Amino acid sequence: MASLPIQERMYKDFSAGLFEHSAQETPRPIKAQFEITYRCNIHCVHCYTDPFNTPSAVRQELSFSEILRILDELAEAGILWLTLTGGEAIVHPQFRAIYKEAKARGFILTLLSNATTLTESVVDFLAEDPPFQLDVSVHGASRKIFEQVTQVAGSYDWFLRGVRRGLVKGLPIQVKTNALSLNRRELPQIKALVESLGLEFNLNTPLYPRLNGDLSPTQYRLPASEIVELEMGNVFGDPSSLATCAFSAASPADDRLFRCGCGTSSLTISPYGVLRACTFTTRPEYDLKTLSVNEAFARLAQAIRRARYEGDSLCRSCPAHTMCDKNPVMAQHEAGSMEAPVPYFCDVAFGRKQKLESIGARS
Question: What's the sign of the alpha-carbon dihedral 112, 114, 119, 120?
Fold first, then answer.
């Protein structure tokens, strides 16, 4: 009996289909981010976890056996995509063992790194069984700007050597750059540097407070008008593609507090074993020392879906809500309430809306 041919699908279509299906069905996790440590060898000015990069905080992190138990529960819960991150995951003293255990459980594994830790030994280790993707961040094209951001002398050279080692070994590196007031003038040079390495330049624009409520990262935000121009101009953006992106100028269809889709198919786990919806949505949260991943995610999804705007916040009926980067939990730190608008994000959202409408009118 002849076997039936296996239908091939592009990876992007396969993954998009899974996420679309999970969004329509009862919430179930298929993607997880595991912050295995908040240790880091650099101290970026905009980093949201740096307040926990201390000896006392490190002592509260999960043990190796607890990490393995959580990996088992993630697999049992049906997680397909897993990201290992931090802090800087590679500086965890048992990183290699954790990485091997994650690979052994069959996850499609992404590793986030600042690349300064990509020594020859680490690169050789990763090359033996590469991650699906290795995401790194470049903060400047010059040593001066890069190290103003990281606040560590020598980090620029460590970064370049690490990335080049990884490329020689064929690691699947993807680079992103956070747009900051410190590196704004160097963004064209950063783009050129990334492309000279044979990589694609990716720009990230939202900056949020630190997880402990410290607002210092927000001082490095660019003006809203510059964000819109960076994203939708001809140098870093692609106006023609943005003109057809999913955008609705209508008011929200309901009064949900969380409109980003969190609590539907993905989750984040902190180094302390706390499960939450994403990196910046630190409430609601559930302790995996007392609940399984499945139990915690079920409670999380229910809490997220039930959360509603109860006051008369302008966010409740905002016609630019699909263009807004507001995170309700971070809004608590910036605006005093999860429901309150964050003026900076309002300016960015309405700037995007106006730009897209002008592009649409010309097309």
Answer: positive
Largest CA distance in the chain: 68
Domain boundaries, the chain: 27-230+260-308, 231-257+309-363
Taking only Cα atoms into account, the Rg of the chain, rounded to an integer number of angstroms, comes to 21
Q: Give the Cα separation of 221 and 229 in Å (integer).
A: 14
Cβ contacts of 277 within 8 Å, gap of 6 or more: 258, 262, 263, 266, 267, 268, 284, 300, 304
Whole-angstrom CA distances from 330 to 59, 209, 267, 279 are 26, 7, 17, 11
Contact at 8 Å (CB) between 11 and 18? no
Q: How far apart are the first and last CA of the chain?
A: 55
pLDDT, position 261: 79
pTM to 2 decimal places:
0.89
- pLDDT reading at 157 higher than 50: yes
**Residue among 57, 91, 110 at smallest CA distance from 274:** 57
Sheet holding 173-178, edge to edge: 203-204, 173-178, 133-137, 108-113, 81-85, 31-35, 266-269, 274-276, 285-287
According to CATH, the superfamily of the domain at 27-230+260-308 is Aldolase class I (3.20.20.70)
Which residues have CB under 8 Å from 165's CB, separation 6+? 118, 119, 120, 123
